[in-house]
Every structure is written in structure tokens, then in C-alpha cells.
Amino acid sequence: AQSVTQLGSHVSVSEGALVLLRCNYSSSVPPYLFWYVQYPNQGLQLLLKYTTGATLVKGINGFEAEFKKSETSFHLTKPSAHMSDAAEYFCAVSGSPGNTPLVFGKGTRLSVIA
Amino acid sequence: ETGVTQTPRHLVMGMTNKKSLKCEQHLGHNAMYWYKQSAKKPLELMFVYNFKEQTENNSVPSRFSPECPNSSHLFLHLHTLQPEDSALYLCASSQDGDRGYEQYFGPGTRLTVT
User: Fold this and answer.
1) For residue A23, what is the enclosing H or E element?
2) Angle at B48 between CA B42 and CA B51, to 5 degrees
3) Which residue on chain A is closest to B58 by alpha carbon?
4) Distance from the Cα of residue A3 to its chain's centroid
5) For the segment B34-80, what is each residue's pLDDT rounded down to a tens digit?
6) Is B75 helix (H, G, I), strand (E, B) or coil?
7) Cα Rg of chain A, angstroms
8) Which of A56, A90, A111, B110 is the most buried (most CB within 10 A)?
């Protein structure tokens, strides 16, 4: 069965500092991995996704994530945090064939301190 | 209208009321989803429709009744709800139910059951 673990329900960084949000997954098949962001009172917006090919994936708003099969990880990073990055971030893994919906992690709330 | 829209954005209803949530996607997708997002709980998948056929029902109580008249529209009919059903209800769509496709979310309906 597929599962996602996001380490840290709340991460706080200073403006301009590195953002690192951790995601580990479990999958019985080669995974497709996604990061979503949710701003207050809004739906989820896709930041980036990995399906096949290059393991370093670049997304919107300066975020990127690296797929590491050996570590079963897909951590999200951004070199320099901005106040507008404050939001909830969700990592997700696709279901196994025939059981297709995404499996989401519990989310990590990112706070950015001025 | 673009993307995925949901109406109403906010809904307050009594436990004996009947109401419906509406979702419309303008992306030409073939799969649509209902999720429940409660405070401090993971995102819960409720229903999946793929090419208008319900393919998943995650043990959702019968007081929630989905309807998908075509690939662009999805409804969630509500009746005799409980206070614990208060949550943000998110609709999403994807190209189809295949595992590689990302889901696009609407802004959600904030439901309060009194």
C-alpha cells in the first residue's frame, strides 16, 4: 500500500533562509510524487511533480524537489524563503495501478518570520 | 471561468436541512473527486468518478450522496448531517483516473453544521 510521511507538522524559517520540507514515501510500485501548496481559505495548488526521468524537479515559485529512490524521499526545498511562502504544504504519492487516487501526507505548515 | 469552481464557498446548515454542493471543471478532464478536509486531520478522499462512473467510495456515510451527471459536473448532496461533518469540502479533477495525472483542486466549500 502507498503511504506518505511528512516529518514535522510545523516548520518555521526566517525570511531569506533555506526552506526544507521533508517527505518520505512507501510504494509497492515505482512512485509518482507530487507537492501541493494550500494558502488559507483556498484549495490545493500543484507545486511540482515527479513521474519519470530527471530526479531533480523544478516547480513554481522557486521550489524544487529531488527524488531519491534509495532513501524513499522527495524533499521540497527553496533556497530563500519569502513571506508569501507561508502556507500548508502537502506531499502526495500516486496509488498503485488500478487504485489510482493520490495518497496525501498530513501536511506541513510553513511559517516565515520577518 | 477557468479551472475548477465550487459553489457555494460557504454554507451553514442545520442538522435537518438538505443542501447540495456543486463542482464544475473547465479543463476537459474525465475524473473528478470529493475530499473532506477537517482541522488537524489528513485530507480524506470521499468519492472518485472516472468517466462519470463511481470508482471509489471510501466508506462514506449515506448522509453524503454524490452525483456526476457528466464529466464536467459533480455534486455532493447533503442531508441530516452531524456537527462533526463541519469541514472544508474540496473538489478536484484530473485528466483521467490514471496514476500519473495530477489533480487540480477547486477553492472548496466551507461547511458548518449547527
Assistant:
1) strand A19-26
2) 155
3) A101
4) 13
5) 999 998 788 999 999 988 888 877 789 999 999 999 999 999 999 99
6) strand
7) 14
8) A90
